[in-house]
């Protein structure tokens, strides 16, 4: 956010009045800055791909496309989003451990840069469906473990990718391919990495694995996807990545690799790092109440739209940055637990958050909420549905997703008339009947 209370000069209170709450607001400038800052520093051999899953709104994807980012997608709808956002086929990759034949066919039909295969079994399926000569990347589950990730993906038994050791022994399977062409590897080590040196070490490890696999198995390295997983700071004890340190280190190892493999496209795929900081989740306080000496603000949105801020499943509840929108400049001298409207004690956006005095009707903003918001939340829980999403671009607010209506929520259900109640067994027989086997 340009500032917590205005987005490109538009007061958040105006946005809430115009579009209602709960509301996600995305600032296209902040989104663009995250990309260009990294792009400016990264080695030119590296292409940045945006991971649609972090925030798949088509207008967000279109901003990324307009800046020159590729798109990494993982479902039919995300692939369709890439087309809708205008991302060129050669700037799209598709990955995911359970791709359907329908998805694989759609990838082949659109002619994307590469399908990333996550198992030898999938590779066989793709080979059967593919016209000759199509490029494929193999996702490797590296033999080493992740440095500094909050959620690690490599080095352990996983549904993702093909174990490095197994790939080394799969020469005959690769030689048996009739249509697809293995042209590189992909690895993704984990998410929420805040340690720059960890990213550098992961990159060096993945590039080393790529060299070894290509040499042992005899496929060219036209593309190597080094993953990403760069984090942003959410909690009090966290600090944003040191971007200079990260890019100095990554550029050194990529530079060496690029000198040996001129023309090889190195992909870095990022979701949270690009989209996380551009978004704010805006809710309105409905009630301010006390329970056993503690103050609660009950708002109109919570876990159903922002599971990440609620942090269900985390060992300790830690708060995303949360602010009062209306009471700019007032001292944050009260402690509130900020909850949503759901009937579960888990629905807590922030516990013991310092805020200025909150009154019913006040707006509260959860910052750094541009990634893994509604699409990774249980939006149908209690049937509140999807919130509205607004993208502020060129100092204009655009509604980029309509809030779900009751009609949207019920329209996909089917009412089957319940069977007419049968005769009461007690009146029929005088005694309760046992159900025949
Ligand atoms: C989720 C995911 C990403 C994006 O992760 P971020 O941590 O948001 O950058 C990239 N690649 C793969 C394979 C993923 O599963």
From TrEMBL:
Compositional bias ranges of the Polar residues kind: 428-437
Domain Orn/DAP/Arg decarboxylase 2 C-terminal, first and last residues per copy: 24-370
Residue positions, PTM N6-(pyridoxal phosphate)lysine: 53
Keyword Magnesium belongs to the record: no
Region (Disordered): 416-437
Gene Ontology molecular function, alphabetical: diaminopimelate decarboxylase activity
Pfam families: Orn_Arg_deC_N, Orn_DAP_Arg_deC
Family statement: Belongs to the Orn/Lys/Arg decarboxylase class-II family.
Active site, per annotation: 343
Gene Ontology biological process terms in this record: lysine biosynthetic process via diaminopimelate
Alphabetical UniProt keywords: Amino-acid biosynthesis, Decarboxylase, Lyase, Lysine biosynthesis, Pyridoxal phosphate
Domain Orn/DAP/Arg decarboxylase 2 N-terminal: 40-275
Organism listed in the record: Microbispora oryzae
Cofactor(s) the record lists: pyridoxal 5'-phosphate
Name of this chain's protein: Type III PLP-dependent enzyme
């Amino acid at each position: 956010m340009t500032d917590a209370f205005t987005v490109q000069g538009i007061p958040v209170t105006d946005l809430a009045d115009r579009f209602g709450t709960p509301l996600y607001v995305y600032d296209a400038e902040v989104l663009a800055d995250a990309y260009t800052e990294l792009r400016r520093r990264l080695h030119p051999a590296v292409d940045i791909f945006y991971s649609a899953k972090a925030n798949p709104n088509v207008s967000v994807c279109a901003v990324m496309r307009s800046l020159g980012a590729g798109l990494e997608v993982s479902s039919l709808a995300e692939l369709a989003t890439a087309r809708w956002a205008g991302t060129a086929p050669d700037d799209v990759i598709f990955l995911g451990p359970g791709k359907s034949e329908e998805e694989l066919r759609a990838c082949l039909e659109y002619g994307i840069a590469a399908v990333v295969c996550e198992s030898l079994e999938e590779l066989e399926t793709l080979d059967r469906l593919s016209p000759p000569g199509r490029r494929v990347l193999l996702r490797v589950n590296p033999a080493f473990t992740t440095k500094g990730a909050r959620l690690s993906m490599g080095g352990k038994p996983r549904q993702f990718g093909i174990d490095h050791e197994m790939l080394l022994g799969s020469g005959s399977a690769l030689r048996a391919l009739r249509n697809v062409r293995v042209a590189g590897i992909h690895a993704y080590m984990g998410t929420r990495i805040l340690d720059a040196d960890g990213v550098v070490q992961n990159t060096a490890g993945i590039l080393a694995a790529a060299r070894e696999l290509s040499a042992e198995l005899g496929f060219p390295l036209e593309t190597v996807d080094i993953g990403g997983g760069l984090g942003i700071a959410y909690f009090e004890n966290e600090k944003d990545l040191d971007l200079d340190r990260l890019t100095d280190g990554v550029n050194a190892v990529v530079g060496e690799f690029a000198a040996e493999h001129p023309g090889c496209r190195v992909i870095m795929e990022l979701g949270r790092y690009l989209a996380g900081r551009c978004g704010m989740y805006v809710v309105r306080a409905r009630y301010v109440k006390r329970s056993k000496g503690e103050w609660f603000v009950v708002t109109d949105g919570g876990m159903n739209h922002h599971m990440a801020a609620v942090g269900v499943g985390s060992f300790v509840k830690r708060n995303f940055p949360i602010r009062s929108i209306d009471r700019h400049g007032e001292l944050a001298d009260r402690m509130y637990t900020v909850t949503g409207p759901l009937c579960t004690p888990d629905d807590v956006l922030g516990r013991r958050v310092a805020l200025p005095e909150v009154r019913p009707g006040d707006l509260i903003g959860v910052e750094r909420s541009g990634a893994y918001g509604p699409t990774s939340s249980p939006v149908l829980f209690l049937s509140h549905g999807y919130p509205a999403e607004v993208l502020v671009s060129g100092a204009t607010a655009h509604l980029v997703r309509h809030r779900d209506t009751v009609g949207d929520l019920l329209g996909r259900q089917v009412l089957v008339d319940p069977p007419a109640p049968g005769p009461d067994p007690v009146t029929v027989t005088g005694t309760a009947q046992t159900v025949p086997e």
